[in-house]
Amino acid sequence: MLALMHRDTRPSTVVNVGGFLGKLFKQDPSASCRKKYTPKVEEINALEPQIHAFSDDQLRAKTQEFKQRASSGESLESLLPEAFAVVREASWRVLGLRPFDVQLMGGIILHEGQIAEMRTGEGKTLVAVLPAYLNALSNRGVHVVTVNDYLARRDSEWVGQVHRFLGLKVGLIQSDMTPEARREAYLDDVTYVTNSELGFDYLRDNLAGSASELVLRADTPFNYCIIDEVDSILIDEARTPLIISGPSDKPSDKYYKAAKIADALTRDVHYTVDEKQKSVLLTEEGYEAVEDVLQVRDLYDPRTQWASFIVNGLKAKELQQKNVNYIVKGKEVIIVDEFTGRTMAGRRWSDGLHQAVEAKEGLEIQNESVTLASVSYQAFFRGFPKLAGMTGTAATEVSEFDSIYKLPVAVVPPNQPVCRVDNPDVVFRLEQYKWKAVVTEIKRMNKTGQPVLVGTTSVEKSEYLSSLLQEAGVKHQVLNAKPENVERESEIVAQSGRKGAVTISTNMAGRGTDILLGGNPGYMARLKLQELLFPEIVSQVEEANAFAMKNGKPGVKTWAANPDLFPCNLSSAAMDKARAVIKDTVKSWGVRKLTLLEAEDRLSVVTEKGVTQDPTIMALREVYQMMLSDYKKVTDEEKGVVVQLGGLHVVGTERHESRRIDNQLRGRSGRQGDPGSTRFFLSLEDPLFRVFGGDRIKNLMLAFRVEDLPMESQMLSDALDTAQKRVENYFFDIRKNLFDYDQVVNTQRDRIYAERRRAVLATDLSPFMVEYAEKTADDIVEANIDRDADPSEWRLEALANKLVQYCVLLEGLTAEDLVKNSKGDFDALKEYVRKLSVDAYYRKRAAMEEFEPGLMTEAERFFVLTNTDTLWKEHLQAIKFIQQAVGLRGYAAKDPLIEFKLEGYNLFVEMTAQIRRNVIYNVYMFKPTRLTQESVRARQQDAQQQGKKFAERKEKELAEASSKQKAKA
């Protein structure tokens, strides 16, 4: 009966009764969101007629009114309806976009400090403007975090217009900005920034030597943060810590030897590989073989540490694959993000793995580094008093968001019903037949003209599929981590919805560009205007640099876009107008005088709808609108054709490690009520099932003898789902374990950084020094005197000598003084020694103030910061070693985490005591001297002589090197 009631619209003959029962008794998760927030949305909507009647100036004046009301104590919650209504009206006037009711719901959810799950194409970027504006009214700063510089820039330029129109200042952080520019941007009301730049600025601030070096706000560095693609940052990248490191002088030639040895060893004979754990283990035979080759007795000898070099060499060989885990650009190994398919320039694997990969590729090995400061995204973002996020896929990770970040997830209903058809998976036994079927599917869709987007998991797979399509004669575009493709990222993705388009892409997470059916006319018009304008205004030097980066081929210089990008020729009216306006623009801006960045900035303003009084911008904007109109006529017509064909068809070529990433790929199809379809092609040889599938899938591989036909069975589907869930749980356990361990270090980091920041900002460090003097005095007394011993047995002579050694100002102190002032009472003794230490400090300070006013404060700050940084760096190395070592204690029936907490705490207590001792000792010993003119001249002469000797030595070395080269020749 149930089967009769259920009408399954999917292209499958099997009805899933269990799934139906789940849907029957489980409410749509977005329904509760609609029910909860509809009253608040109706309240905002009721204000719309009143706000709509305001002039632009009146609308802007509301911002100052809101700020005054917030500063006088009115809560942001009470301001929300009116503030949201003002932002909605401003968005309509500036961008031509009126936020839907469901976008208002998303804004309320973000303001409440939750995660809003909104489908792809629902306008998350615009949603963030609402809570960002509201929370900026408190004048404490708002950070909008994106996954890359391009998105941060795009959002600040595009939706930032709304903030600017309403009188707020909008800041933008980019990777190449100076500290001064960063400081200004963070002081603005709303700052757009990437997760890595914000994290590194936090770490750099905690290495700053003075208040003038800080870039984050001094009073409120963190207030409210909205994270775009929150699952990508807080889950996918949670395992990757941000690290600021300094150079180490460890030798690098061992990496080359280890790479050669690793290449000669045989898998499963000399070593085993656990792909699941990402680990390599030498066998007994492997140990003997390596020791014979190296002529060493022990690979684990701490003086040579050959074991770590060999293991890293094997990991580089087996686990780090070129064009999958990394690419080689020039003479550099660049990591590829396994989740987004983007390159991570500047990032390096730690513990010698990056050097091992460089040796494997025969590149010059960069020196190893020592960690100076480090923080994980888990710890960093939990430091915000109020945190919110948005993504298209968060529901599958609800438990992790809640357990680690205390962030609830709310599913926002779509503005239009989803019309996408998700077809069942097609599974083959062997991978070669899967690729054959993928090509057949693409050819079939392409023949009808239906656009196809193909998702792959690596650069290597995308290149392989591209070669198959070339053989099949299918015209297509490739978007992967290779630099030449990254340059055209937005162009490729923006046009992926055109009739007959075939696009191969690595993971689509966070691409930030909507795929519009029929094509994106706005992007077409922008590229056409750039093609005509940039050759006239961009300087030749900048142009040469730009094309060197983009093409990597000398002599290829053209701003012309791919002609296939444009669906029609522009009207003669548009072209005539364009030529005339560009001629006037060159007169106004100068012939080839702008940098590429300046030109792109001005072009972005031209393509916006923001208010401007610049006549040149207004004239160019008119040309842009004419071009847009020409292209829009064709793309609108083409959209109707593509809709009739079924919309965008998404082909997945592998199940990812997480269902979220699969859903992100599916979500590219069927945006805003458009039709669409998806289908995944899999093989039982895919890494996911090979590594995590277990015995059930291995048995299936043996059971199915037919190799070139797809397999369908409930048992198979269950096995695939089980494998994917197993991977998700496995990685969640890793992140949870990382979180548990990082909590220990994070508590310590917070203490150290808070103390350090207090020292940087303090105008008077006397309270610090008094505290350090008292606690150090206590340490010395407790180390030399046993509280429980009889006073007659106290070693007061040794204590007096130790105190004089610790503080030269106490010279003359005797055991009799200690006896007289303690009278046999241990606490009285401690109090007396404390008083001596503090009095000595104040005497020293008074003497230094007399010598040079303000000098002592600067010296104290220097001592605190340098000792804190040095000892914290050593502490990080020690705690890292302990984390590796405690894992073995599980064999002794001890909980490694508890052991880590105990040892970590003891290390931390020891380190903080050492900081106090070093600082106060340096203060007591501080002896500045005034330089006479003669001594200054003597130092200058000495420096000149040293410089001359250095130059002579270098010249001699160069001459010797030159003679050696001639001799070789």
TrEMBL record:
Domain spans labelled SecA family profile: 19-713
SMART domains: SecA_DEAD, SecA_PP_bind
Reaction equation(s) it catalyzes: ATP + H2O + chloroplast-proteinSide 1 = ADP + phosphate + chloroplast-proteinSide 2
Start and end residues of each Helicase ATP-binding domain: 105-266
Keywords linked to the UniProt accession: ATP-binding, Membrane, Nucleotide-binding, Protein transport, Translocase, Translocation, Transport
Basic and acidic residues composition-biased segments: 949-959
InterPro entries: Helicase_ATP-bd, P-loop_NTPase, SecA, SecA_CS, SecA_DEAD, SecA_motor_DEAD, SecA_preprotein_X-link_dom, SecA_SF2_C
Superkingdom, natural source: Eukaryota
Disordered: region residues: 935-969
Similarity field: Belongs to the SecA family.
Species for this entry: Dunaliella salina
Annotated membrane topology: Peripheral membrane protein
Annotated TM spans: none
Name under which the protein is recorded: Protein translocase subunit SecA
One of the Pfam families matching this protein, by short name: SecA_PP_bind
